Recover the amino acids of this structure.
C-alpha cells in the first residue's frame, strides 16, 4: 500500500481535532532543516545559531504542544533545551567524537502558553570524558521561562 493511501486511511479514522493535530505535525516535519532528526523535526525545532560551544534554537508553540491544562507540556521546553545544549557541545567536539545527554536539570519559572520560545545554551566546561552546559529558555519578550544545567558524555561515533 502506498504512503498516501495509508495516510488517508488513518485520517479517516480520526475526529476533527485529531486531524488538526496530525496536520500540525506534518507541517512541522515539512519545515525541517539539515540539523536535527525526526524527533526535533516533529517538535518544530528551528536551529537559529550553532557554533562551537554555543547554540540557539527556537520553536513556535501550537496546540500540539499543549497538555490537558492548555499550556505547553514541560517536555517541550526540556526537549528544546536539551537540543540546544547538545548542539552547543557537539559543535565543540572533533569528529568522530559526539555526545549524549547524561543528565539535565531544569527549573520551570513560568508557564508557556503560546508564541515562540527560544533556548540558548553555552558550554561551561569540557573534560576528556564529559561537558557541562548551561541554558535558558525565554519567550519573544525575553522573559525567562526555564533555566537548565546539563552534563553530556563524550562518545566515539562508530566508523562508517
Amino acid at each position: 500500500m502506498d504512503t498516501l493511501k495509508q495516510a488517508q486511511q488513518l485520517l479517516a479514522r480520526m475526529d476533527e481535532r485529531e486531524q488538526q493535530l496530525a496536520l500540525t505535525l506534518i507541517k512541522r516535519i515539512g519545515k525541517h532543516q539539515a540539523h536535527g532528526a525526526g524527533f526535533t523535526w516533529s517538535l518544530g525545532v528551528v536551529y537559529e545559531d550553532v557554533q562551537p560551544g554555543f547554540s540557539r534554537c527556537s520553536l513556535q508553540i501550537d496546540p500540539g504542544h499543549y497538555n490537558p491544562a492548555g499550556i505547553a507540556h514541560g517536555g517541550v521546553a526540556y526537549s528544546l533545551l536539551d537540543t540546544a545544549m547538545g548542539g552547543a557541545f557537539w559543535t565543540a567536539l572533533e569528529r568522530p567524537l559526539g555526545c549524549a545527554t547524561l543528565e539535565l536539570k531544569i527549573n520551570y519559572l513560568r508557564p508557556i502558553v503560546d508564541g515562540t520560545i527560544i533556548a540558548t545554551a553555552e558550554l561551561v566546561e569540557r573534560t576528556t570524558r564529559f561537558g557541562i552546559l548551561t541554558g535558558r529558555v525565554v519567550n519573544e519578550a525575553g522573559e525567562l521561562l526555564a533555566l537548565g544545567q546539563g552534563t553530556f558524555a563524550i562518545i566515539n561515533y562508530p566508523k562508517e
